[in-house]
Prior knowledge:
It is a single chain. The longest helix is centred in the middle third of the chain and has 31 residues, at 71-101. This protein is mostly helical. The radius of gyration is 22 Å and the shape is elongated. Helices cover 78% and strands 0% of the residues. It is built from 5 helices and no strands. The protein has helices at residues 3-18, 21-30, 42-65, 71-101, 112-139. Keywords: Membrane, Signal, Transmembrane, Transmembrane helix. The chain crosses the membrane at residues 46-65, 85-102, 108-132.
Amino acid sequence: MSIRHLLATAMAIPLGVFGSAAPAAAHVLAQPDPVGAYTLTAGRFWSLAGALLGLVGLVVGRLALSRPAGRVGAVARRRRADAAVAAGTACLIIGGLVVAAAEGGPGTGYGIVGGFIDLAIGLIAVVLGGVARARSRRTG
């Protein structure tokens, strides 16, 4: 049996078992239900998670820009700078995915406003980390 046949069989079994539940689930998901202002939807959750990650990147990037105390401080600056760039990049990716997946504007529950905030915070964290990394190369 080839891999294609194996994958096709593996996909067909759940569809056969849950095939009758799919139309009912699609009907429930397609109902236009207004989302409350305080409802935590998946889009809002991911944009919040990205914002928290970006804020961590901002704080670590700011700490990386502080003056090191000797050689050990230069190593710590480099590590903090790398952490800030990594957290900022993750925030940018999450924000971009949230914005790309949003099907509506602000207030629809897709988290598009938080996604744009994630893009801004992530960009700032990456810049702070990059500046700190450049300074650590110059001094260390």
